[in-house]
What we know:
This protein is α+β, with helices and mostly antiparallel strands. The chain is built from 2 helices and 6 strands. Strand 2 and strand 3 form a beta hairpin. The two termini are 26 Å apart. Residues 18, 34, 36, 39, 41, 59, 61 line the site of zinc ion. Residues 4-61 form the FLYWCH-type domain.
Amino acid sequence: MEITTTNRGKPCLMLENYRFKCARVTRTTKEWRCTTDRCKARCTTDLDTTIVIHSSTCHDHSSMTAEDKEKHKIRQFCKRKATDDISARPSKIVCSELRSTESLD
Ligand SMILES: [Zn+2]
């Protein structure tokens, strides 16, 4: 399973192209909720987030496409870059990153 972090640095679970945020941690499990607020989808994993113990992934919205995921990655990458180099304008960094991704196709 793929674990990323949210903009606020919280763990974020990627399951079937949907993102889940950690809602609760018990002694043996972690409970995750879909990052879309109105969505009722939930899942439960073990503490190491290696196995899905239970999931009710009845989302009422579409999943992230490969393109969305790529954009998300670029955004995170740009944010890091922008933090590393505060003299560079964020918009400039985003533009150059988007261009370099497009040229890979
Ligand atoms: Zn959802």
